[in-house]
Specification:
Number of helices: 4
Strand order of the largest sheet: 1-2
Helix content: 40-55%
Strand content: 15-25%
Distance between the termini: 102 Å
Largest sheet: 2 strands, antiparallel
Length: about 130
């Protein structure tokens, strides 16, 4: 309808255009580009794991802080405890368990923790070339 087609012919024209090879290729190209832009690369994964392992990656968390103070009640004249709550934003470093997990994953990537041992042995080959006595 936006391209100038009537509502009656818009569907059939759209179907016809989707069969056009150039349009199909363009749609695939745009989809691939959008898909690639949203997928994390291997370098980015390693970068983020490294920052977490080093404790450089921080998170901001909202913490409710509650403080109390004694104030005089104007109705009774007695002192009473009045609480004041407010939200405070706190930056946190990664937990030790998160850092250890990141270190483990980086170690596996660099093959630092191989349980298998590669053994390079040459198996001797015996050749039976001794003549038999008849």
């Amino acid at each position: 309808v936006h391209a100038g087609y009537s509502e009656k012919t818009a569907y059939s024209q759209g179907q016809r255009m989707l069969k056009n090879v150039e349009i199909q290729n363009y749609i695939k190209e745009v989809e691939t580009k959008l898909f690639d832009e949203n997928i994390m690369s291997g370098k980015e994964v390693l970068y983020r794991l490294t920052r977490t392992a080093r404790g450089e990656h921080t998170e901001v968390e909202a913490v409710v802080t509650k403080t109390g103070d004694y104030k005089e009640n104007p109705d009774t004249g007695k002192m009473q405890l009045v609480y004041d709550e407010h939200i405070q934003l706190v930056t946190k470093s990664p937990k030790i368990s998160d850092q250890n997990k990141a270190l483990e994953m980086l170690g596996r990537h660099h093959k630092l923790f191989t349980d298998k041992q590669e053994v390079d042995h040459k198996i001797p080959m015996f050749v039976d070339n001794i003549p038999e006595d008849d």
